[in-house]
Amino acid sequence: MLKNFGRKLLLSMVGATLTCLLVLVVDQQNRQLVQMAQTTDLSALIGAPSAQGEEPPSSKDAQTFSAYFSQLTRDRKDVEQVGAPSAGAPGASKPPIEEITAKDVFIADCTPICILDLEFPTFIFTDGEDEELQKKTDNVISTNCSAAHSRQALSCKMAVEYDQFIESNMKWFCHVDDDNYVNVKTLIKLLSRYSHTNDIYIGKPSLDRPIQATERISESKMRPVNFWFATGGAGFCISRGLALKMSPWASGGHFMNTAEKIRLPDDCTIGYIIESVLGVKLIRSNLFHSHLENLHQVPQIEIPNQVTLSYGMFENKRNAILMKGVFSVEDDPSRFRSVHCLLYPDTPWCPKTFAY
To answer: Residues that bind Mn(2+), according to the entry (predicted)?
Structure first.
């Protein structure tokens, strides 16, 4: 009896030892992977300066763009994933948390095609006076910022956008680039899921992990910081409640000063203020799209459900959604006119026999 007991005890001890060794090996591998991810410098991928203080390049060359493209985001496990609910999905008919209209949403820097046929408050921010554009809409604002695509110029423009939104008293601030098309109906439906008085930061990151930066605390002291940010290339939205909390770091000339503390562009600075300073997590939505993703993967049947679409060139190839219609690619390279006529077929310049 004692012998049997001794055998069982010995087997239990051996099994426990092997289990502990296995856990230690797996844990060590995970630690190595995390360390590799945290020590990788992403500054070269986004055209931002390195920790040594190098200035970002004025334009992305093909090699940098390819490296950036390869870092496209994958699903995050630590944030809410927001998509378009299907008709039969649970909660698809759930009433919105807050009823809003297009007049509650401050859309900054939208491509002109969005504003010529729809009545909603879109504000176009330019680097100088544009008489032709001003004839078409009253919401043209000259930033007096540099026309360069530098970190400083982009931050200057974002600072003006933020201040204009605060003055507007609207409920939502949405920034999009001028190569985006905004589906306002879907945008309103998405924002209606949240209260504008809560801390809401929603968009789509372009990297698959937090960006690493160096925060300047004083002339001689710096510290590393890492945070998620929603790329301006796909667009992002911020609730008024959260935007007001950003004021000490974003209003007036503070946004430019904050951007210089981390030496990163405008959309990165937004993420830094919200995530790193205020501790509010980004809500990722797969309904926002930038030109730094493969837009061919957006099915045509799903186009009406998207919030933003984009287009661009990648390795001398056109990167745009695959959209059929009577508009040729030469006449409509971005496919935005085709999308617009799909969503709003009664637009005067849309062909009445538009085929998809």
So the answer is: 179, 291
Q: Please, are residues 207 and 71 in contact by the beta-carbon 8 Å criterion?
A: yes
pLDDT per residue as tens digits for the range 262-288: 999 999 999 999 999 999 999 999 999
- Active site residue: 104, 109, 267, 332, which one? 267
Q: What is the C-alpha separation between 264 and 106, in angstroms, rounded? A: 24
Give the number of other CB atoms < 10 A from CB of residue 195.
16
Sketch out the chain's domains with CATH numbers: 97-285 (3.90.550.50)
* This model's pTM is above 0.85: no
* Whether residue 346 lies in the annotated active site: no
Tally of CA atoms within 13 A in the half-sphere of 77 that contains its CB: 0
- Per-residue pLDDT of 287-345, as tens digits, reads 999 998 999 999 989 999 999 999 988 777 889 999 887 788 888 999 988 888 888 88
CA nearest to 205, candidates 271, 297, 266, 299? 271
Return the H-helix or E-strand segment holding 180: strand 180-182
Strand partners, 346: none
Say if residue 291 carries a ligand binding annotation: yes
